[in-house]
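Margin note: ligand = zinc ion.
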Amino acid sequence: MIIIAGVSPKTKILDQNPRRCPLCGLHQAYFKRVDHYLSFFFIPLLRVKKGNPFIMCDRCQKTVPEFEPDISQQTGDRPKTCHYCKMSLDQDFKYCPYCGKRI
Ligand SMILES: [Zn+2]
Ligand SMILES: [Zn+2]
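Resulting structure:
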């Protein structure tokens, strides 16, 4: 007799945007989650176990435990610019080194 009902894992990609893999440096790491479904005739019927999200690189086939924050999405302090000549300046400048005006 063939067992047709059973619990099988199903990989779900949570985020279609690839992240940079710190191991290979390519943007081929995806946020995934493995859920376990009770399937019957190979059709998943019921989710029996919800997995923890993880990041896995498609190239390395390795899970990445922690990712450095994406530099392109960082919203830090805006760079200070001179009001007069619009040159970008260091935060602690009192006078613009380009045009000599006080900031
Ligand atoms: Zn990789
Ligand atoms: Zn200036």
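The pocket of zinc ion (ligand 1) is lined by residues 21, 23-24, 26, 28, 57, 59-60 (CB under 6 Å).
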